[in-house]
TrEMBL record:
Organism ancestry: Bacteria, Bacillati, Actinomycetota, Actinomycetes, Micromonosporales
Keyword Membrane: yes
Keywords: Membrane, Transmembrane, Transmembrane helix
Protein name as annotated: 40-residue YVTN family beta-propeller repeat-containing protein
Gene Ontology biological-process entries: signal transduction
Entry-linked Gene3D superfamilies: Toll/interleukin-1 receptor homology (TIR) domain, YVTN repeat-like/Quinoprotein amine dehydrogenase
Organism of derivation: Asanoa hainanensis
Length: 590
C-alpha cells in the first residue's frame, strides 16, 4: 500500500508540473507577458492545478484481486493445460472469454489464437491435444461443420482425453451425444461444478467459491480528513514552486512549435506496411506493436484485414516477433510476412480474419534491426524472394513446398525490390545507393549496377516495365531509371518535401506517388517529367507505406500516429484526400 500511495503522489506531482509549464507557456507565448509576469500567473494557478490531484492522491486505495492473463495462445506446448476447441468463425470471442475465465480460476488453458513463427500448425495442435488434461468443445453451428473441430474431437477421443462440451449456439453435436453438456447459449460462462471438474482433471486445487462482500459498517481503514487534504495540496504547491523554476528556465528558451521534432525512438522499427488483395476488397496491414512495459516488453507482429469499402478492421492476428514486409499471393488466398530478426516467413490464410497456417525458415538468416525484410513474388506464385539485409543477400523460395534455394549474394544490404512485369528481372535497391538487376531464370546478378541517390528505401516499376522509380531517403530525391539501358534518365526532388520513404507507380497512368515521412504528405508527379501534379496532400503523421487499388483509382497511405496505425485514402483522378486517416490498429502501448 505505501508503494501505491507513493506512485499516486508522484503522478499527481508530475501532472501538476506539466500543467504548470503549459500555463507558463500560454501566458508567455499567447498572452505576450514577460517571463516574470508569466511566472507569477503560473504560480497563482498552481493551487488550482495541484488541489484536485492532491485530493485524488490522498484517497483510500481499494485493492482489487489481480487478474491473471489468459494462458496459452498458440505458444509452445503446455502440458496439463485444458485444450479449448472452437470455430474461428463464430466461437472465437467466447473461447477467448473462456480462456480468461479459466486463467482467473487458476486453470491453465490453451487455444489456437496465435501461431509461433515457423511452427507447423497441424503438429502444434496434435502435440497440445496429446499433452492436455481435458478438452472443452465450444459447440456452435460453424464448429459442427468445421473439419478441424471434427479432427480435434476424434484425436482427443483416440488419446483418451475427457471431453466437456459447452453449447454456445445451435444444436448439440451428434458426435458428442453420449457426453453431458452445459448450456451457455445465453453467453454465460460455465458454472462452479464445471470449473471444479476441470481443476480436478488438471490436478490443481478447485477454485475458491466467491466470498460475500463485507457489511456496510466494516472498517475500511484510516481516511484522510478534509483538513489533511488541504495540507497535502499546500505541500504539493510548495514543492512545485521550488522545483518548477528549473523547468521554467529550461523551457523559456525553447521554440513554441513541435514541428520537426524527433520521432519516437521506436518509430524506425515500427513502420507498418500495406498490401491490397487482387480483387481490391481487402487491405492487409502489417503492424509492429511495441509493448513498452509489462511482463514481456518488446516487439510483436500482427496482420490486420481492413474492408476497403466499409473501412472496418479485423482483430489483429498476433505472432511472436516484429512484422516485416508482407506480400499477397497472386491468387489472393495467402499472404507471406517476413519476420524481422528471426529469419522466418509466416504464411497466412486471407479473408475477413487472417489466420496463420504455417511458415518456413531461411537457412542462415542474419539479424538486422534497422531494415525490414522486403519481398517480391512471381506472377505464378511459385517463386518468392526474401531480402536478408544483415547478410547482404536475397533468398529465393518456393512457398508451396517451403523450400528455400541458394542465397543470391549482393555487395550491400537490400532495402527494397520489385519484379519486372514479365517476371524475368528482379530489381533490388541496396543501401550504398545502387540498383542491382538479377536474372530470375539463373539467379545471378547482372552487371547493371545503376547508381542512384543516398540510402534508397523504396523502388517501383511502371505498368509497362520501361521505367523504375527509386525513393532516395538520404538525398531527398527520386531517381527515374530506364532498365533496358541501365541508366538514370532523370532525378528530381518530390514536392512532398524531405525523406521520401515510399513510392508507387500508377496502374493506368504514368503518375508516380511519393510519401515523405518528414512532411507528413504524399505528392503525385508526372512520371515522364517529374513535375508535380498539384500541391502536396496531407495524409497524417509519418506516412510509411503506399498501395494502389487494382483499378488504380485509389491510393492507400499507411501512417503512424502517436499510438495508432492509420490509413488515409487519396483519389488518384483528382489527387485529393477523400478519406482522412482512420485508425486500424495500435502500435505502441504500456
Amino acid at each position: 500500500m505505501p508503494v501505491r500511495r507513493l506512485v499516486r503522489w508522484l503522478i499527481a506531482l508530475g501532472v501538476t508540473a506539466a500543467g504548470f509549464v503549459v500555463v507558463l507557456w500560454i501566458a508567455g507565448a499567447w498572452g505576450g507577458l514577460d517571463r516574470a509576469t508569466a511566472l507569477s500567473v503560473a504560480l497563482a494557478a498552481a493551487p488550482l492545478l495541484a488541489g484536485p490531484f492532491a485530493w485524488w492522491a490522498s484517497q483510500p486505495i481499494e485493492v482489487k484481486p489481480r487478474r491473471t492473463s489468459a494462458t496459452g495462445a498458440g505458444g509452445p506446448v503446455k502440458p496439463g493445460a485444458v485444450f479449448v476447441c472452437y470455430s474461428q468463425t463464430d466461437g472465437r470471442e467466447y473461447a477467448q472469454r473462456l480462456v480468461e475465465n479459466l486463467a482467473e480460476a487458476g486453470i491453465p488453458a490453451w487455444m489456437d489464437r496465435e501461431i509461433v513463427s515457423g511452427q507447423r500448425w497441424t503438429r502444434t495442435i496434435e502435440e497440445q491435444l496429446d499433452a492436455c488434461s481435458a478438452v472443452v468443445v465450444v459447440m456452435t453451428p460453424a464448429a459442427s461443420k468445421s473439419e478441424w473441430v471434427g479432427r480435434e474431437i476424434l484425436h482427443a477421443r483416440a488419446a483418451g482425453k475427457e471431453i466437456l462440451p459447452l453449447l454456445r449456439s445451435g444444436r448439440p453435436f451428434f458426435s458428442l451425444a453420449d457426453v453431458h453438456y452445459e448450456d451457455v447459449t445465453t453467453g454465460s460462462l460455465p458454472g462452479p461444478q464445471f470449473l471444479s471438474r476441470l481443476a480436478d482433471l488438471a490436478g490443481i486445487a478447485p477454485p475458491a467459491p466467491p466470498q460475500d462482500a463485507p457489511p456496510p459498517d466494516t472498517p475500511r481503514g484510516p481516511r484522510f480528513t478534509v483538513r489533511w487534504r488541504y495540507v497535502a495540496a499546500a505541500l504539493a504547491v510548495v514543492v512545485l514552486a521550488i522545483g518548477i523554476r528549473a523547468i521554467v528556465v529550461y523551457s523559456a528558451g525553447r521554440q513554441q512549435s513541435n514541428a520537426g521534432a524527433a520521432p519516437h525512438p521506436a518509430y524506425p522499427y515500427a513502420r507498418p506496411g500495406v498490401v491490397v488483395s487482387p480483387d481490391g476488397q481487402w487491405l492487409y496491414v502489417t503492424v509492429n506493436y511495441h509493448l513498452a512495459s509489462g511482463d514481456n516488453p518488446g516487439w510483436r507482429g500482427a496482420v490486420v484485414a481492413v474492408d476497403a469499402q466499409t473501412r472496418v478492421a479485423s482483430d489483429p492476428f498476433w505472432f511472436v516477433a516484429g512484422a516485416g514486409h508482407g506480400i499477397v499471393s497472386p491468387d489472393g488466398k495467402q499472404m507471406y510476412v517476413a519476420v524481422d530478426n528471426y529469419g522466418v516467413v509466416n504464411i497466412f490464410q486471407l479473408g475477413a480474419n487472417p489466420m496463420g497456417i504455417g511458415g518456413f525458415e531461411l537457412p542462415a538468416p542474419t539479424a538486422s534491426a534497422d531494415t525490414h525484410r522486403r519481398m517480391a513474388i512471381s506472377d505464378d506464385g511459385r517463386r518468392l524472394y526474401v531480402a536478408d539485409p544483415g547478410a547482404s543477400a536475397i533468398w529465393p523460395a518456393d512457398p508451396h513446398e517451403d523450400a528455400v534455394g541458394k542465397a543470391i549474394t549482393l555487395h550491400d544490404a537490400p532495402q527494397d525490390m520489385v519484379m519486372s512485369p514479365d517476371g524475368t528481372r528482379l530489381y533490388v535497391a541496396v543501401r550504398t545507393g545502387y540498383v542491382v538487376t538479377i536474372d530470375t531464370a539463373t539467379g545471378k546478378t547482372l552487371n547493371d549496377y545503376v547508381g542512384v541517390g543516398d540510402d534508397p528505401r523504396a523502388i517501383a516499376t511502371s505498368r509497362d516495365g520501361t521505367r523504375l522509380y527509386v525513393a532516395n531517403h538520404g538525398s531527398d530525391t527520386i531517381s527515374t531509371i530506364d532498365p533496358r539501358r541501365g541508366t538514370v534518365i532523370r532525378q528530381f526532388r518530390p514536392a512532398c518535401g524531405t525523406k521520401p520513404i515510399a513510392v508507387a507507380a500508377g496502374r493506368l497512368t504514368n503518375h508516380v506517388y511519393v510519401a515523405c515521412e518528414n512532411a507528413d504528405t504524399v505528392t503525385a508527379a508526372d512520371g515522364a517529367t517529374g513535375a508535380a501534379l498539384g500541391p502536396p496532400i496531407k495524409v497524417g503523421e509519418r506516412p510509411s507505406s503506399l498501395a494502389l487499388s487494382p483499378d488504380g483509382t485509389r491510393l492507400y497511405v499507411v501512417t503512424l500516429g502517436a499510438t495508432t496505425v492509420d490509413i488515409a485514402i487519396v483519389d488518384t483522378s483528382t489527387n485529393t484526400l477523400v478519406v482522412p486517416p482512420f485508425a486500424v490498429a495500435t502500435w505502441y502501448g504500456r
